[in-house]
Amino acid sequence: MRKLALGLGATIALLAVSAMPAAAKQLVVVKSTAAAFKPGQIVDSNVALALPDNTMVTLIGPDGRNMTLTGPFNGKPAAGGGNDDPALVSKLSHILDQQGSDSSAVGSIRGGPSATPPDAWSIDVDGSGTWCVRDSSTIRLWRHDPNRPQQANMRNAAAGDGVAVHWNAGAASVPWPASLPAAEGKYLVRMPGHSLPIVLQLHQVPADLPTDAHRAVWMNDNGCSGQASRLLTAAH
Question: What residues pair up with 75 in beta bridges, in sequence order?
């Protein structure tokens, strides 16, 4: 009888645990076409979300993974799994809040050339700045005005000869030159008619970061806030 009672008690306890709701996790809104949800907003995974027809919301959880919900939808978002970072969601929310409050990081100049590079790995060569990079093959050299041909000379500020970079008329960007490996450090870009070189400070993004969300946080912490927001809001 004692063994039966113990076994019954264990079963009841197991059923009680299984009936408990999953632990709530915070999720951050990254993109949204639903009026009730804005980028940077934090929602609870145990609270049902209502999305009207033909709307969508992209969320990131503490594991750094993206999930997209499309309307019509009424239910709780999946909490995700894996290796959670409790601080990740709040950091992502801060990046997206910065993006929303900084008009220079969003959109383009109405009726004129684009104001910001089109993606996270395009480097603006029209002015000096700090940029975070992964490897040379992912980098594009982007300019504001693509209407005219343009020539430049690039070199590593520490050592080495310069290499020529050429944009054809109509081309906004070109690949980073294969003969000039991109690494941690400063690069000088000399444009015709400019008395001083444009200085590009590159920071190498660690290869072991597991998701774009983790990369965005690292980039934001290393002076690449515009790139971080573009990485988060890229199509997934």
Answer: 49
